[in-house]
C-alpha cells in the first residue's frame, strides 16, 4: 500500500512538472528559432545542460527545486561559464557545417524540464536538418527518469504545441523507443531487441545525464559520432573532473572504433 502511494505521488509530481515544461515549450522554441546559427547551437547546448539539472537523485538540486519559481531560466544561471570541464561544443558546431546525420539515437534522462525543454528542442533541430531521430527512454521508472510510456505521451502533447514535432511523429521521423532498462545508467550491450536492430543505422549517438553519459559511458568508444551531455550534481565528482559543483560536460567525438 505504501509503495503504491509513493508511485502515485511520484507520477503526480512528474505530471505536474511535464505540464509546467510544456507550457513553456512554445516560447522556448520561438526564442531558439530567433537566434543566428552559432548562438542557436550554444543555447541548445546550454538548454540541454540546464534541463539536466532537474534530477530528483541529487539533493542539492532537490533543495533548489523546492524553491518557488525555479525553472529552466534559473537552472541556466547555474550552468558555469565556458569553457566547461569537457567542452567540445565548438567542434560540434563545426561538424554541423557538414552533411546531416542519417539517424540519431538520443538516450534521455529525466522527465519534465529535462526532456521537454532541454532535449526535445535539440531533437527538433536535428529533424530540421533531415535527420531521423529515435528518442530512447527507460522501460521502467527510476526516480524521475522519463519512461517509454511517458515519452509517448510527451511527444503527442508537444506535437499539439509544435506542428513540426507533430509532423515528424506522424511521418515516423521522430520515434519513441524503449531501452529495456530500469536504472539511471546505460548499458548499451543490453538494449531492447527492437531498439538494438535499429541502432545499426545510427550515425549519431547522444547520451544525456550523469548516470548514462558519465558514470557508464564517458570514456566509451563508438563506431559512430557521439555526444555526451551532462551536469555533474556531485561535488566530489565535479572536483575530480576539474570543476566545481554543477560542472558541465559537452563531449563530442567522431567515430573512434571501426565498424
Describe the structure.
With 259 residues, the chain is an alpha/beta fold. The protein contains eleven helices and seven strands. It has a seven-stranded mixed β-sheet with strand order 1-7-6-5-2-3-4. Strand 2 (103-107), helix 6 and strand 3 form a beta-alpha-beta unit. Helix 1 (2-33) crosses helix 6 (113-128) and helix 2 (37-51) packs across helix 4. Mean pLDDT is 92; it is low at 1-9. GO terms for molecular function: ATP binding; pantothenate kinase activity. It catalyses: (R)-4'-phospho-S-sulfopantetheine + H2O = (R)-S-sulfopantetheine + phosphate. Residues 12-245 form the Damage-control phosphatase ARMT1-like metal-binding domain.
CATH topology: Rossmann fold
Strand content: 5-15%
| CATH top level assignment | Alpha Beta
What would CATH call the homologous superfamily? Uncharacterised protein PF01937, DUF89, domain 3
The chain-level structural class is alpha/beta
Tell me the overall shape: globular
Distance between the termini: 50 Å
In the sheet with the most strands, the strands line up as 1-7-6-5-2-3-4
SSE order, as H and E?
HHHHEHEHEHHEHEHEHE
Number of separate helices? 11
Outline the low-pLDDT stretches.
Answer: 1-9
Please tell me the CATH architecture by its name.
3-Layer(aba) Sandwich
- How is the main sheet built? 7 strands, mixed
Amino acid at each position: 500500500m505504501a509503495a503504491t502511494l509513493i508511485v502515485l505521488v511520484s507520477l503526480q509530481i512528474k505530471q505536474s512538472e511535464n505540464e509546467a515544461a510544456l507550457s513553456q515549450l512554445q516560447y522556448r522554441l520561438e526564442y531558439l528559432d530567433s537566434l543566428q546559427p552559432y548562438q542557436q547551437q550554444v543555447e541548445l547546448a546550454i538548454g540541454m545542460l540546464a534541463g539536466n539539472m532537474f534530477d530528483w537523485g541529487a539533493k542539492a538540486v532537490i533543495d533548489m527545486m523546492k524553491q518557488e519559481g525555479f525553472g529552466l531560466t534559473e537552472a541556466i544561471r547555474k550552468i558555469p561559464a565556458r569553457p566547461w570541464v569537457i567542452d567540445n561544443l565548438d567542434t560540434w558546431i563545426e561538424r554541423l557545417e557538414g552533411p546531416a546525420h542519417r539517424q540519431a539515437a538520443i538516450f534521455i534522462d529525466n522527465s519534465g524540464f529535462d526532456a521537454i525543454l532541454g532535449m526535445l528542442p535539440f531533437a527538433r533541430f536535428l529533424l530540421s536538418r533531415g535527420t531521423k531521430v529515435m528518442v530512447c527512454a527507460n522501460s521502467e521508472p527510476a526516480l524521475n527518469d522519463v519512461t517509454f510510456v511517458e515519452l509517448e505521451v510527451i511527444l503527442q502533447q508537444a506535437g499539439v504545441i509544435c506542428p513540426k514535432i507533430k509532423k515528424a511523429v506522424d511521418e515516423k521521423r521522430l520515434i519513441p523507443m524503449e531501452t529495456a532498462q530500469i536504472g539511471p545508467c546505460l548499458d548499451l550491450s543490453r538494449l531492447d531487441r527492437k531498439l538494438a536492430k535499429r541502432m545499426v543505422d545510427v550515425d549519431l549517438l547522444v547520451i544525456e545525464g550523469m548516470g548514462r553519459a558519465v558514470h557508464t559511458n564517458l570514456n566509451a568508444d563508438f563506431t559512430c559520432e557521439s555526444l555526451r551531455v551532462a551536469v555533474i550534481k556531485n561535488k566530489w565528482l565535479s572536483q575530480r573532473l576539474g570543476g566545481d559543483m554543477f560542472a558541465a560536460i559537452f563531449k563530442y567525438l567522431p567515430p573512434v572504433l571501426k565498424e
